[in-house]
């Protein structure tokens, strides 16, 4: 593959991170451009039929949209394959990439929940999904399907990253007792491609975003920030 690649991004977007992780796993040089989703530039509106990031610009004037086709395109054209060779296993991996997207929706429900009851309910829905994964992922690891990092791992690294920030100020019980999932989460957090998919100020930017949700989680974060400030002033 010789065309230049540009990843049109947003600082927090977990779908953009999937593409950044795959590009990094394959050691492909690329440019990254960040846009403000609250003020989308005209060129972006023209290039993105759904108005969403990620977009991958290939060469001078071709834009690919939607993270799943983007990462599959990269997998087909660059470096060593991350998708498994066996068609049945590959179809299962595609399904678990979608499962990761459903978990992202569940994370949205968690941070947007307006009161404690809705928060608990969203937390239970997420837990049941991770309980399913506890029975599904490779028992030996280190990755989803075992020895090799796959597109499923690229989809879950950004999902787990939310919890690293949430757990600074909320006691979540979502992963309690799910030893295989917890081990997988740690492996992904330590992976260079996953770590490098966001900038160093990601936790702070996510907190700013969370504080604006006017949700139960916003209240917990605001209370925690007050306590931290008070402790620092003492
Ligand atoms: N199905 C899409 C989801 C991408 C997505 O939801 N992107 C969000 C940011 S994380 C976005 O661009 N939202 C802008 C908007 O909806 O206006 C994919 O997999 O690429």
Q: How many distinct domains?
A: 2
Per CATH, which architecture of the largest domain?
A: Up-down Bundle
- The whole-angstrom Rg is 18 Å
- Bulk shape: globular
- Helical content stands at 55-70%
- The CATH class name of the largest domain reads Mainly Alpha
**Which kinds of small molecule does this entry bind, naming each only once?**
glutathione
How would a textbook summarize the main sheet? Answer: 4 strands, mixed
| Separation, N- and C-terminal Cα atoms | 58 Å
Supply the helix-strand structural class.
alpha+beta
Give me the CATH fold name of the largest domain.
Answer: Glutathione S-transferase Yfyf (Class Pi), Chain A, domain 2
Percent range for β-strand residues: 5-15%
Number of strands: 4
Mean pLDDT rating: 96
Task: Enumerate the spans where pLDDT stays under 50 for 5 or more consecutive residues.
Answer: none
The SSE order reads EHEHEEHHHHHHHH
List the helices and strands and how they pair.
Layout: E1 5-9, H1 14-25, E2 31-34, H2 42-47, E3 55-58, E4 62-65, H3 67-77, H4 87-112, H5 116-136, H6 151-166, H7 179-190, H8 192-195, H9 202-211, H10 216-233
Parallel strand pairs: 1-2
Antiparallel strand pairs: 1-3, 3-4
